[in-house]
Amino acid sequence: MEGNIVLYDDEYQKIKEIIQRLNEEANARVVFLVDKNGQQIAACGEIENLDTTSLASLTAGNVAATDGLAKLIGEKEFSILFHEGERDNIHISLVGKRVILVVIFDQRSSLGLVRLRVKRASIELERIFDAIVKKVEEKQKEGENIETPFAEITDEDIDNLFSP
């Protein structure tokens, strides 16, 4: 399941429930899920004053850069990243090599609690993404064409949209 992720409403609702529960149980400020291309899948918590689009794309870039570092030193990957700030900390983890789970937390929580809660949430999320892959494969076997909603948009359409 490389490239774009096809999300169905049932699975999306389950994903939202998992990240909301993680946000509460880890005492986090923000939890969000991003695909490896930097597209936000879901978010919850104190996101009103955050540029979640930039945060999602920078997180994906951070993971990609860290993958490059891992390979340079002979590691397969670094599946967990942690950034500690004066007030806020960011815990980033790969889920099933498909998506990136980000938890932003402050002094109300601890790295140990976040890691513990992320571990459980990651297992649940991985199951959901495995189910999505199976569902897409089944639909493709049945002859359904699974495309992103943007598949029919051409470069010309985009140019026309932004031209004066």
Structure description:
This protein has 164 residues and is α+β, with helices and mostly antiparallel strands. The protein has one domain (9-162): Dynein light chain 2a, cytoplasmic (Beta-Lactamase), CATH 3.30.450.30. It contains four helices and five strands, in the order αββαβββαα. It has helices at 9-25, 52-72, 111-141, 155-162, and strands spanning 30-35, 40-45, 80-84, 89-95, 99-105. It has a five-stranded antiparallel β-sheet with strand order 2-1-5-4-3, with helices on both faces. A hairpin with a 3-residue loop joins strand 4 (89-95) and strand 5. Helix 1 (9-25) runs antiparallel to helix 3. It is globular and about 50 Å long. The termini are far apart.
Fold topology:
Elements: H1 9-25, E1 30-35, E2 40-45, H2 52-72, E3 80-84, E4 89-95, E5 99-105, H3 111-141, H4 155-162
Antiparallel strand pairs: 1-2, 1-5, 3-4, 4-5
Helix pairs in contact: 1-3
List keywords for this structure.
164 residues, alpha+beta, Beta-Lactamase, five-stranded antiparallel beta sheet, 4 helices, 47% helix
Q: Element order, helices and strands?
A: HEEHEEEHH
Instruction: Quickly count the domains.
Output: 1
Helix content: 40-55%
Structural class: alpha+beta
The CATH topology label is Beta-Lactamase
Number of strands: 5
Beta-strand content bin: 15-25%
Query: Please, what is the CATH homologous superfamily?
Result: Dynein light chain 2a, cytoplasmic
Q: In order across it, which strands form the biggest sheet?
A: 2-1-5-4-3
**What is the average of the pLDDT values?**
85
Query: Overall 3D geometry?
Result: globular
CATH architecture: 2-Layer Sandwich
Number of helices: 4
Which residues sit in consecutive blocks of at least 5 with pLDDT less than 50? none
CATH class identity: Alpha Beta
Between the first and last Cα atoms, what is the distance in angstroms? 38 Å
**How can the largest sheet be summarized?**
5 strands, antiparallel
| Rg computed from alpha carbons, rounded to a whole number of angstroms | 17 Å
